[in-house]
Structures are given as C-alpha cells and as structure tokens.
Amino acid sequence: MNGSFRLSMTWLHNWGGLVVGWLLFCVFLTGTTAYARFEITRWMQPERIEAVDSPNAAAAAVATLSREAPQARRWLITLPDERRTATQVYVYNPPEIQPAFRKLWLEPDDGRPVQARATFGGDFLYYFHFDLRLPTVAGRYLIGAAGVALLVALITGFVIHRRVFWDFFAFRPGRSRTRLWMDVHNALGIIVLPYHALITVTGLVPLMTLYMPWGLQAAFGDRPAAFNTAVYAEPVPPAASGRAAPLTAIEPLLAEATRRWEGGRPGRIFIDNPGDEAATILVKRTDSDRVVITQQAILFDGVTGAVRTVWDGTGGAAATRAGAYGLHLMRFADTPLRLAMILCGLAGTAMIGTGQVYWIIKRRKRETTPSFGLRLADGANLAVMVGLPIAIAAYFWANRLLPAELAARETLEAVAFFAAWLLAALHPALRGVQRAWGEQLAAAALLWATLPLMNALTSHAHLGVTLARGLWGVAGIDLTALATGALFALLAWRRLRGARRRLDRPLPSASASAS
User: In 3D, which of 403, 387, 408 has the Cα closest to residue 120?
Assistant: First the structure.
C-alpha cells in the first residue's frame, strides 16, 4: 500500500477481497437460501408438503411428552407457524437417564411423531452460512473475520469508484471481457449497496459477544447465568423438589402471554421439572411477528400457573441489538419481501463472484505463462462458484435417492454435499482448470435442470401437484432449480463457444512473427 490514498485503497480492495472472496461467496449463497429455510425443509420432506399449523400444537406436544418423557428435567418446545409446520421438541434428561438429549418432530394437531424421512432440510444450509459446520466456534470466528473484511471491501470499493453513478450506468460488453466483468461487478455492487451494508453489519450482531466479550465480562464477570437471564430471558431453572405435582394446563398460559403482548404469538416454551412441585414454564414470544425481536417472555409457576417474572425487552441497548438481529434474519418478511431479499442475496453473491473472476482475467493478461498461484486461484474460483452449487444440488439429489427408512440418512445427505464439493475441488487438478470450467458448468446445469424431473419420479411432491394445490413455497424450489439449470446451461454454452473460437483462431504466420 503506497502512492496516493486511492491507489492504496485499490490495492486493499483487490487483495483483501481476493483473500476472503471465496469464503464470502459461500456465506452469501448459503445465507440467501436461509430466506427459504422452511420451504426447503418442506420440499425435502415430501410426505408432509400439505401439513398445516394447529392451535392445539402446544397442548398436543405437552400431552405427548407427558407420556414419552415424564422424567425429563426439561422440555423445550418450538411451536409451528404458517411456514414451519411441525412442532420441534428437545428433551433434556437427568444424568441417570440416557440418552441425555433427544430431538423430536411432532405433528401439530395431535402430537404424534412426524412420519417423514429424516433430514436436516434447510437448517443445514442455514447453519453452514455462519459456522461452516466446523467444530466448536472456529467457523464462527472465520465468518466474523470475513464479515469485517467485507465491510472494508465495501468502504474501499466506494472510495475507488468516485464516479459512482457513472460506474453504475457504464456497461461496455463490446470493449473487452475484462471491461465486461468489471462493469457487472460495479453495477451489482452499487445497485444493492444498502443491502450489502445492512446484511454485513447486522450479521456481526448475533455473535458479538463471541467476538467482543469484554463488555459482558465487565458487566457480569464470571456470572454467565446472570447474563443469560438479563439479556436472553433464560433464568436458571430451580432444582427439582422430589415431590410429584400435576403440570398446569398450557392453553391459559399462552392466552395470558398473548394478551400481555397485545396479540403477539408465543414461539417457544421451556418446561423445567415437569411433573414436580418445583416445575416452571417459560413462554417466549415468536420472532416472526415483528422487526425488533426483543426478548419478551413470561415465567409461570408450573403447578399453579401464577406469573413469577416478566421480561418486556425494554432498554436502548436491547432494542438496538434486537433490531439489527431482526433485520438480518428477516423472519417478519412476507412472501414479496422475502423474494426481494433472495434477489438481493443473489446479487451480492454474483458481485463477489464477478470480482473474483475479474481479478483472474486481469492478472492473466499480465502473465504470458500463468503462474502456479494464478492457476491455483482460478481453480479455487471454480471449486467455490461452481463446486458449491453442485454440492447443494447433490444434497437435494441425496434427499430423494436415499431410502426414506435408512438410519442416519440426514447425516448421509450432508456427506453427499461435502463429497460432491470435494470432487469438484479436485477435478481441476485432474483435468486442468480451463477444461474443468466447461465440464463443471455442464454438470451443474444437468444436476439442477433435471432435479424437478427426478423429484417427479421419486415423490408425489412434484410441480404437477404443488402448483395445482397452490403450494407455492414448495413449488418454488423446483422452479428455482429449473432457472438455475438454465443459467448454468447458458454459461456452459458460452464457455464452449469461447473455447471453439480460440481453437479456430488462425495461428500467426512466420512472416508476421518475424516482423
């Protein structure tokens, strides 16, 4: 970094963006799928595409748990809604009962176990976008560092493009391939710049205590339980008394919570020491009915139903954090707004991808013989920008091809994702980067374009059914697959046409070479 301020910012933008660009591409692409997280899960469980919510979900879940897990120390119930159509339950057992932890999916209407294939569904891609499915918190630290680097890239990019409006309208497809990629990169960066800034800043908020724990330590010291009680409305559960007592009915408690929240819906229920005299019931408000998702919760006595503690989410700091968190998740968004966010997320993904390609093309012009580093960077571009979509397609294909009754099949779906991605990453080393680009683009086009056909051959949740019954969320997965396949087919065709032109180009004559 030397010379003028603008040249220094250009250097920082180019190299800083290159280093984290591959990681950011993965984060943006899988993060964009999180807007359709629950729709993906429904598509991956074709047995339940027409499942609906039920007002009896809480009572049905409590009745089932009272029969199936009466000695548990805690029941955690996540209630369904119009997009999430199954009741999600976590059972935490005392040390003398194994397994110590169980996860159940229940039908909302009667609490019976969900009869559908086991799958991680959209949750796999959702969690991947902020932890990369790495152990402990290593992935979250990497994502945090990448988020900060993206902020730097956005700021330096704005400094570089002083004529921001001119750069937005500049589109020069006839000048050169380098100019074309640069113009597309600039236009995508400018047109959704507010979204980029919003999603980057707010993306750092959910894990801010991991990245900057000093405020927490100053306020609470070595008392993490006090922090969880104050900030997340999760008090330390009381110890069981050892004296049996019936659990109070859950419906009046939910009705009282809805009244206090002026129509706000309960979303999660924590029941500690069920069937014991020291039982407590914590009801927390859902995140999907408001923008600022402050912690609003009520702690009830589990036997009498009396209100013990109320959290109303007041306070400037809490509202600021909750507002940023709510804007990042966008769980309040209706279908049109969610579609707009998906388009913005895809534009952000394409902005990062075109920037990576532009760097390679520009660098190749400077090197008569591509260096090892340039070939490695080009192969990394291919492995990420085409290999990751191939891996996601393989994840969906595995969902349909693995037997529904197979044990641990959800883990095998994840294995298919990583195995396909690993093959895509190794492919350039075996076939050469230039040849591998065309082959992987064709493979991606084939996998995505035929996904709806394979869905029709292996399940009854195909477009002929979902469109006829107005199940647009599920049908949207197949329609997106067709659009994605068409895009990759176009890119593969252009790549093949470009390769043929280079082969047909006449070699320079001896006289021209001598002159």
Answer: 408
CB 156, CB 189: distance < 8 Å: no
Going from the C-alpha of 353 to that of each of 22, 74, 107, 486, the distances in angstroms are: 8, 46, 42, 18
Separation CA 292–CA 324 (nearest Å)? 8
Helix (H, G, I), strand (E, B) or coil at 117: coil
Residue labelled with tokens 């350039």: 428
**Distance from C-alpha of 297 to C-alpha of 285, rounded to nearest angstrom:** 6
First to last CA, the chain: 40
d(CA 161, CA 187): 11
Buried b (16+ CB within 10 A) or exposed e, 290-329: bebbbbbbbbbbbbeeeeeeebeeeeeebeebbbbbbbbb
CA distance 385 to 496: 18
Residue 173: predicted pLDDT? 58
Distance CA 287, CA 296 (A): 10
**Which residue type, as a one-letter code, is found at position 173?**
P
- In this predicted model, what pLDDT tens digit does every residue of 136-169 receive, in sequence order? 889 999 999 999 988 888 888 877 766 655 555 5
Please report which residue ranges of 132-279 form alpha helices under DSSP H.
138-160, 164-169, 177-191, 193-204, 208-211, 214-220, 224-232, 251-260
Residue-level pLDDT at 221: 84
Q: What is the pLDDT of residue 403?
A: 95
Q: Extract the residue ranges of the chain whose pLDDT is less than 50.
A: 507-515
